[in-house]
Structures are given as structure tokens and as C-alpha cells.
Amino acid sequence: PARLPRAEATVEARIREALGAPPPHAAPDPRDLAAPRGYRPFRPVPLWLRTAPPSASEGAGPDDSDADGAPPDTGESSRTHRARRRATDQVERRDSLILHKFEAILSWADFANINRRVEEDDLENARKAADDMDEIALGKVSKAPATKLKLHLDLSPADVDRERLSGRHLYPEWDHKAGAYLPEHCCVLAARAEPSEGVPDDPAARRRIRAVRRRFEALAPRRVARPRQIDGEELDLDAAVGALIDLRATGRGSDRIWTANRTEARDLAVSILIDASRSTESAVTGRAVIDIAREALTALAWGIEGCGDDCAINAFSSLRRDRVFVQDCKRFDEPMGREVEGRIWGLRPGFYTRLGAAIRHASAELAARERRRRLLLVITDGKPNDLDHYEGRHGIEDSRMAIIEARRHGQAVYGIAIEAGAKVWFPRLFGRGGYTVIPHPDRLTDALPGIYRQLVGT
Fold first, then answer.
1. Interatomic CA distance for residues 223 and 129, integer angstroms
2. Which of 12, 52, 93, 276 has the maximal Cβ count within 10 Å?
3. Cα–Cα distance between 409 and 225 in angstroms, integer?
């Protein structure tokens, strides 16, 4: 403190006194705590904490204690209700005015932020009231009513946080309710995938991978004979005879008398984006989904390498909007080899599935490739979800908009779902003819050559 300016030394002394240091001999003048004119403090750094107001979805829930300990009777509604969170800061006030609210169908749709007694109602009337309301308002009360309903709500677990982020890879997110983008809403943390300590020696898996590689070899671009070339491997007899006749008749002959065998280049770049969220820990037919995905990725990478197409492989998971993890197992122009295979087998189940941000990141890298055709292949085993508002319809609509954006940039986007329940929501994302649902994940490896043949048009 002796080397600090007077104003900062006074504040430093107060802070040390609050932390337990002995107080100074003379009590500081409170007027010395005020910043002098023209004083400019240090800019805040990211390590400093920031207080944020609690969202409407946080806080303690109602008192669910039951006097007799018996489970309450609940009714379940099959339809999906539109809902909105409403502030309930006035419900605990003791100085409210007396207000008589006539209970009619029209009044059910109105939310009143007042202190009112929690009335007990029978289950049938409560269910009828919920069905008649256009929108259900969610608020907090200190005491839970005895009548409880189980409803399907079009509502995310948390309110949308609209604050912008800062970072290297920032992407917007589509808010379907507002019909607009949330700018710089998601931060993608891209990193190299950690290699596995060793590739497991599974003879059965090796046999399946070799079989898939042989099927991919049939998809390689074919060699086409081009006649009447200036140079080539073989003499074009028809062109040579014609040139000789022209030479004797007119004195002029063509030098295009060769046949050149050349490979048809597809000029294709393929970006593979695979879901590595926590759900891949689940087991199917005695094998974890992540193990099946590793095997399928290995077979697909070796197969595309044999086809001669440019390929990149990324895995992703997320933990809220500011931490979308993307691990690159193979980059464009990187040859397939043991190192790439080790990174694929080093993938581990991550967290959640913020699909929209991952698609935008993979699409941005794919757009930078100078290829005539670009293909984005998305492999997932579950719905888009995350710990914040990225749940339900919000995640579905944002992922769908990310796919539309990629297609607007001239990229072909195709989805592969390794979950039987994806038939319900997958068509909304990828559209008709833009996806394949594989109900049994263990059939993924065997299905990839046929899917790739369909996409590249071989």
C-alpha cells in the first residue's frame, strides 16, 4: 500500500481490514474512498467474477411435502401446451389489495401476479382448464397444491440468455419464437482429438472394416478412355487412319491420333460430423454406441481414402452455449493412417448435443475447400439438447436452420440417425430424402458404403 496512490492505498487498507488484517492506526476518512476526478481504473479481465441475476427457471421449487405421505393423484395430458414463464415477485406480499377474480373460461387465460390463496380443485376440472387455455403461465409459489397435472409443454428448461460471447469461433443461434438470430450466441472450442493409447485388437472388427474398405474400392472414380488426344498410352487406330487419308488427299493430317486413359475426378470434399455426447455411453447388443461409432468412422475414413475423395472428420459435444467442443480427428488433405485411426479410437463420450453450432462450424470449414462438390455428413444418436434453453423445439429449429444455411452455400447435407425414435423428429431437420434412420446401431458400419454410393452418385 505504501507504493500505491492515496486513493488506491485507502481502498487497499479497507480490503485488508475486511480480510482480517489489523486495522490502521488512524481510521481512514470515508471521503478518501471516492475516486478522484479523472481516475481511470484497470479494465476488467475474464478471471474476475461477475454477478448475474437469476433466471426465471432458477431458485427453489415449491414445498412438495405431503402430510399423509401418500403419492398425489396426477393426470397426464397427451397434447403439447404452449407455455411461458411469468414473474411471481408479488405472490408473497402481505399488503395486497383485495381483488375478486371471476372464474370463467376467459379468465383462465389471464395471469395475475398477486398474492392469492392456492385453491384446491378436483383433477377433472384442472385438466379441463388446462385444455381450454391458449397459453399456460408458469410461476413459483411457496406451497404446492394438492391437484397436480403432468403436461407436455413447449418450453425450454431455462430462459434464453441473449448476451453475446467473445471467442475465436462464434456463431449465431436461431430463435424460432422471435423469428430472428441471436448474434454471436455460441462459442465453439475447436481442438485436436487426443489419440488413444492403443487401437484395440478386435479381429471381428478388423474383418468388418476390411470388408467395408473393399466395397468402397468399387466406388472409386473409373478410368475413362479419351480418343483423339495429342498424347496417350495407346494408338487410336480410327484417328490414325483418318489422319493418314487426310494427309495423302490434302497434304494435311491431324496429330490427335492417341488414346489417353484418365481417371474421372469427382472433385468432392466430404466433412463428417459425428455426435460424441453422453448418450453414446449406452450399450446396444452388448457394445457401447461409442465403440460402434469408432469402428464405423474408421471404416468410412479408410473407404473414402481409397476413393480418393478429400475428407475431414470432426466429433462434437457441448456444455451450454459457451462451450461447444469440436474435436478434429482428421483434417482435409491429411492422409489416412495409424495416427488418424488412433485419434478416432481415442474419442470418449462428452456432454450434450448442441447440433446447430457444430453444423455451422463444420459447414464453415467445408465452405473454405475449393471443390466443385461439397458434402456434409452428420451422424447422431439423439435429439439436440443441452443444459440451458437448447431443449425441445428450440434445439430442433436451430439445427434445422443451420442445415438450411449450409445448403444455401451449395453444400449437400445428409443425416444418419442411429436411433429408432429419430423417425419422429429427424425429417423436420433434414427434409425428405435427406436422411437415413438406422434403428440398430450395430448395422451402421455395414450401411455406410450404400449410403455413400447414393450420395456421390457412383
1. 71
2. 276
3. 34
Q: Residue 167: how many CA atoms within 13 Å on its side-chain side?
A: 18
Torsion of CA 268, 223, 217, 312, to 10 degrees: -20
Report pLDDT digits (tens) over 258-268: 888 766 667 89
pLDDT tens-digit readout, 125-161: 777 777 777 677 766 666 666 667 766 666 555 556 5
φ, ψ of residue 115 to 5 degrees: the values are: -85, 110
Contacts of 63 (CB under 8 A, 6+ apart): 142, 143, 144
Are 174 and 392 within 8 A, CB to CB? no
Answer for the pair 348, 275: CB distance below 8 angstroms, yes or no: no
Residue type, 194: E
Quick check: 151 and 81 in contact, CB under 8 A? Answer: yes
Residue type, 407: R
Q: How far is CA 286 from the centre of its chain?
A: 27
Round to whole Å and give the CA distance between 411 and 424: 25
| H or E segment and range at residue 303 | helix 289-307
Helices and strands of the chain, counted as H and E runs? 11, 16
C-alpha 142: how far from its chain's center? 36
Of 347, 349, 374, give the one whose Cα is nearest residue 363. 374
Task: Using alpha carbons, select from 426, 455, 454, 421 the residue that is nearest to residue 440.
Answer: 421
Q: What pTM did the predictor assign?
A: 0.64
- The sign of the dihedral angle between the CA atoms of 52, 82, 75, 115 is positive
Cβ-contact 227, 315 below 8 angstroms: no
Q: Which residue matches cell numbers 373460461?
A: 105
CB count within 10 Å of CB 159 equals: 15
Q: Which residue has the cell 478386435?
A: 202
Residue 188 to residue 324: CA distance in whole angstroms: 5
The whole-number average pLDDT for the span 249-276 is 85
Ordered by where they begin, the domains of the chain are: 1-38 (no CATH), 74-154 (no CATH), 184-219+266-456 (3.40.50.410), 223-263 (no CATH)
